[in-house]
Structure to design on (243 residues):
């Protein structure tokens, strides 16, 4: 009986090792760059197949198992048609796997020397940057830009505050389209906002500011895993165009 049990355990161990080996990245995938993996249909398919367990382990706590953003995590939906932060290609304005890889490895506003350390949403209610009536008015103007119900009486002051005193246009553009170069939100697409879209949330954002970050995984995951995750994230997005 003891010998039989040991034999079964040995077989189980061999089966587990074989399964692990079957799920190991190929040598070709390990040697290729993130962009080369994406451009090669066979390597891309391999990366996408290997990615879900990695995503569940490292990314799902913020971005959700479905990549649509976990409740309360204030993380972007990775499956929609809006890239909060753009990439390096300013000719086609298309995201590359290497852009996603950069964010995975070095994060956004993370304690990493190579992080994407972009500006944050300033607190306009601090230090009398804006008066309470201006904050209330620009809140209504943002609601108008986003296509939500707004108080029309507040719009003249709100528009003036947005375009002059508040300087909101500098990051969000006069049209409210946002700027992927800095991570400024597109105010015309409230479904892509990270911190709530109702009147109270918008007012709080204007008054107190917002800051968010993405951790740097360099040194925590392998370079190959970062490339695998990059291909997976790109594959789930509705578009690669970021501008």
């Amino acid at each position: 009986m003891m010998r039989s049990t040991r034999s079964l355990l040995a077989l189980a161990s061999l089966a587990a090792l074989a399964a692990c080996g079957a799920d190991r990245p190929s040598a070709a995938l390990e040697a290729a760059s993130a962009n080369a993996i994406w451009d090669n249909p066979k390597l891309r398919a391999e990366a996408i197949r290997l990615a879900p367990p990695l995503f569940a382990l490292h990314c799902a706590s913020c971005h959700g198992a479905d990549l649509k953003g976990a409740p309360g995590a204030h993380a972007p939906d990775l499956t929609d048609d809006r890239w909060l932060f753009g990439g390096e290609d300013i000719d086609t304005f298309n995201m590359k796997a290497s852009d996603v890889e950069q964010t995975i490895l070095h994060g956004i506003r993370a304690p990493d020397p190579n992080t994407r350390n972009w500006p944050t949403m300033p607190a306009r209610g601090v230090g009398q940057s804006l008066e309470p009536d201006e904050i209330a008015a620009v809140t209504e103007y943002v609601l108008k830009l986003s296509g939500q119900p707004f108080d029309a009486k507040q719009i003249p002051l709100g528009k003036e505050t947005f375009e002059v005193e508040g300087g909101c246009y500098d990051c969000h553009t006069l049209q409210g389209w946002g700027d992927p170069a800095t991570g400024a939100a597109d105010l015309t697409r409230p479904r892509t906002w990270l911190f709530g879209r109702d009147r109270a949330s918008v007012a709080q954002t204007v008054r107190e500011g917002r800051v968010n970050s993405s951790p740097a995984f360099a040194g925590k995951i392998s370079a190959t895993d970062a490339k695998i995750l990059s291909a997976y994230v790109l594959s789930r997005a509705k578009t690669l165009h970021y501008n």
